[in-house]
């Protein structure tokens, strides 16, 4: 009887493993998303302030809306980026005089802040290509190193960017990231978590933002430069006044 029960359990384990066709990178990313908030990401509307600009973020697997509001010399500006495109209003009236270049620049700016604030949830966007580079050690801790690139179709203007994520082997938190980009002059950056805030079941992270001396440095050299102390602290990425409101859907 015990032998039969053991064989049944073993068969179920083998069946479950055979049914799970996810790549190793995908499994790690899924565990990281769960560790950072899981379903709360797509069941909440998030607000925060970043560099004196107020942001609102809503995102699910198939829809999103990011907005920011700020005051300048012309009045109250609101930018909205969603599945339908980009719209800017000034004092409540739509601005119709924006060039394609300006629309692109504003869209990238809004999207960039939302993307980093919502990490690692965005790593499961349809256009992402995830590759597991193995385990590594950084600051004495063990990490899974994940490379993320993008399909050209659906990957946006910056589809050729390359991202690296250091995801904790024990806790699955994203403690470091590095990325290369080609828009707006291009460059490469590395970010290190400096502070953590939790709200509404979501883990929000602030970062120290580093750059190398040579902006054409390959992104896969950023860890060794960081460990050697050869990166310059460029800025701090701090989210303030975070609010998370559950959505009733």
Describe the structure.
The structure is a single chain. This protein is α+β, with helices and mostly antiparallel strands. The chain has one domain: outer membrane lipoprotein receptor (LolB), chain A (Clam). Helices cover 22% and strands 45% of the residues. The chain has four helices and 14 strands. Strands 6-5-4-3-2-1-14 form a seven-stranded antiparallel beta sheet, covered by helices on one side. A seven-stranded antiparallel beta sheet has the order 7-8-9-10-11-12-13. A hairpin with a 2-residue loop joins strand 3 and strand 4. The longest helix has 18 residues. The radius of gyration is 20 Å and the shape is globular. About 4% of the residues have low confidence. This is Deoxyribose-phosphate aldolase. It comes from Algoriphagus hitonicola.
Total count of strands: 14
Name the overall outline: globular
Distance between the termini: 48 Å
CATH topology assignment: outer membrane lipoprotein receptor (LolB), chain A
Question: What series of H and E elements makes up the topology?
Answer: HHEEEEEEHEEEEEEHEE
CATH class: Mainly Beta
Q: Helical content, roughly?
A: 10-25%
Strand order of the largest sheet: 6-5-4-3-2-1-14
| Whole-number mean pLDDT | 89
Approximate strand percentage: 35-45%
- Spans of at least 5 consecutive residues whose pLDDT stays below 50 are 10-19
How many structurally independent domains? 1
| Main sheet makeup | 7 strands, antiparallel
Radius of gyration: 20 Å
**Known CATH architecture:** Clam
The structure class reads alpha+beta
Helix segment tally: 4
Pfam families: DUF6503 (PF20113)
Protein name: Deoxyribose-phosphate aldolase
